[in-house]
Amino acid sequence: MFKKYTLLSLSLVLLAVPSLSFAATSAEVQAQINAIKEQIQVLQQQLINLSQTELQPVSRPTQVPSVCPVFTHTLSRGINDAASEGEVTKLQQILAVDPTVYPEGLITGYYGVATERAVQRWQAKQGIVSSGSPVTTGYGVVGSQTRARIITACHTPPSEIIGSITVLSPNGGETWSKETKQTIKWQDNMTTTCQIGLPCPSRLYDIRIAADYCEPSIYTCTPRHDSYQIANGVSSSSYSWEVGKYGLGYDIPYHGDYYTIQVCQSGTSICDSSDREFKIVGWAGPNIYPVINGFPAVPADIKVGQIVSFSWAATDADGDDLAWDISWGDGPGAVGPCSIPHQQNKQNWNFTRSHAWAASGTYTVKATANDCRGGSAEHTLSVPVGSSVVAPPSITALKPVSGMVGTNVTITGSNFTSTNNSVAFGAGYLHGLSSNGTTITFTLPSDLNTCPPDRMCILSLLRWQVVPGSHPVSVINSGGMSNSFMFTVSAPPLVTILSPNGGEVWEKDTHRAIDLFSSPSDIMTYGDITLTNWIQPCDTKTQMCPMMPSILYTLEPVKKIPLGKSSFLWKVGYDMNGSPIPAGQYVVVFTDSKTGKSDQSDAPFSIVEGASGGGSGGSVQATTQQYAVALESMKAVLDQMQVILKDMAR
User: Fold this and answer.
1) Inter-axis angle of helices 113-125 and 87-96, to 10 degrees?
2) CA 472 – CA 483 distance, rounded (Å)
3) 468-492 pLDDT, tens per residue?
């Protein structure tokens, strides 16, 4: 913590100066100015002495904790002890051992800016990461790599647990048959000191299996992200495993033949995995689904009762014989039988059927190719049947013509089909929309499909992100594509801090309203209302600038902000947990949790001690910031007196 010094309150300093009146002579005003200058010089020297003292490294105990803590939470700015089971305090205690990493040495239980900077210095010093941001590279976040490094870097005294775990079997090269019983073995190299006359505490272990993408003799294999828990809380150094099972006897999904075993000490990150992959044989093997890649053309002007022929084509990577189902949209269709036993002769990969409809209308035709092993592929198309060609759709109105993501939009027009309308919006599409013939309603999503209707898209999983700006809107159905209207996507709402916005002086223990304004929008805004200390701008080239850490206090987390003007009643001088906030100058900050955009007070306001916080005749404990405030206030008085003096001399 910074050392504290006693400073006479500004009120005493100003009381020591004779009161100023316009009846005073020029000599009297000049004498008052000289008195204030002397006081300013005294305060400036005290400020320099205090700044130099506070910049010295803070002495703190250098011994490491008696037991190296194990971290299980991901820690980042804004997390506190309550949300991390006390791990923020443990982290700060470890960081505070090295003054080059954490010169502030604050043990607050809150992960603020100072703690984040200390973690960044520690990560760089340990060679984990030294650039980027918490979002892009994890710079300043205690994630899995940093937690593991803390364990290896923590020098635990010899009387505590030391060592590691080694997987013995399977450790690479073994071939185990599925559903046989095999023994997973490991060795715990960790030692501990047991009290005489008492049994040593037993350790428990967790076992997982991870699949590999490829055969290691051909490629360099990378473990899959998906793994499966074989057992939890095993108390011995071996486990009898029914190969291919996990959990409560479930079959591990087939990912290939090669796997690794990982054993961890329960509740810790002390783990070891097989040095190389072992092989599991006896899998039934995966089934690859068929793919429809040949589609029929829909004839124009189909008449009622006219027999029309449609053809599809499909392939199957396993060489499976295919069975086809067809639905014509006007009643029961036809179901193709599967051969028994199942054949793999690449039969029935082409499918052709004819049909005639008894009434006019638009029919949805669906063809399904089955490989008779649980895999299938579908293709649907709309077939108009009537006495004339289906007219193309047309748009006459769009309401509203602008809005944010999440806005409900209604398209008015004609020739909309009852089902299977698609809306082209910008560079994306919304498919399968229904209509009463004249209107289509949809909610504008944040991203859209990039695949046009009735088309087989290889890159159909790609999405187009809806961005602010003007975009064309049109309708597509069996009649074709309509004309287009423009829709303007507006940016998300912004929240503006109205009060305190600079210059206010609020006493501690009073209740004041923090006023906000949310711009018009159909979506409520959510975010944190926070308070950060204000730091006097300082030119390091011409001034001696004290080091003032930025400290963040949360006043209200994830606050729902209604549209228009709103207020949050705050007990001045306390954070959301009721912890006191020191007197000083601050700015209020609101950050939108969805967009990341924020606004803060245009200028600082002041939190001061109330009437019960001490009289003007006593002394107060002052920090560097309070010295600076006192100097600025006295300089302002001096400037006013100099203006008066010039007016009197005229």
Assistant:
1) 60
2) 9
3) 899 999 999 888 899 999 999 987 6
